[in-house]
């Protein structure tokens, strides 16, 4: 059984984890792109995430999707979709119902990608929609990772510039880790017994309001 919720203090005491495999940055439809497609098409479950450049000043509009991350167990591919767009061959993976893509708040990510290339998303699993079935109320990736995998992940690069000419090693590690942990959490959940939250556990604030 998993904990319903986790505190910042409990997360702080956990071991820091990051993606342990190979990270490949893809910014054009070259050799790395086709190597990525071959690998991704062979996977049954992929971790999924995107990154968007934040606004650095009030008068600066937020950027569109800058990075698409797809991770298997041993390799993570980071597609710089700002310069290269979303090629149909890559979009076809996102539309393939036979390949499970696991993320958090996936609807927003998918909408951002659909602005680059029209596709019908298939095979997506949003962890935020299923963790309650396993007795978990927390929905942030950081908290879910702590509860399900027993490790902490760094979010220090979340608001960094994802449209920078050169992504730092810290950015690459962060981006790959965010996708990878979603895959690992899903694999652990589907092999765990379900213990659904009761309505009172799912919405404790309602009980307080009624009290």
Word description of this protein:
The protein contains 10 helices and 6 strands; from the N terminus they run αβαβββααβαβααααα. It is of the alpha/beta class and 211 residues long. A 6-stranded mixed beta sheet has the order 1-4-3-2-5-6. Strand 5, helix 5 and strand 6 form a beta-alpha-beta unit. It is globular and about 50 Å long.
What is the number of helical segments per DSSP (H or I, 4+ residues)? 10
Rg, Å, rounded = 18 Å
Q: So what's the overall shape? A: globular
| Helix-strand topology string | HEHEEEHHEHEHHHHH
- The order of strands across the largest sheet is 1-4-3-2-5-6
Which consecutive residue ranges, at least 5 long each, have pLDDT under 50? none
Percentage of helical residues? Answer: 25-40%
Please give the largest β-sheet.
Answer: 6 strands, mixed
Report how far the terminal alpha carbons are from each other: 28 Å
> Based on helices, strands and strand pairing, what is the structural class?
alpha/beta
The whole-number mean of residue pLDDT values reads: 94
Record field, number of beta strands: 6
Q: What percentage of the residues does DSSP assign to strands (E)? A: 15-25%
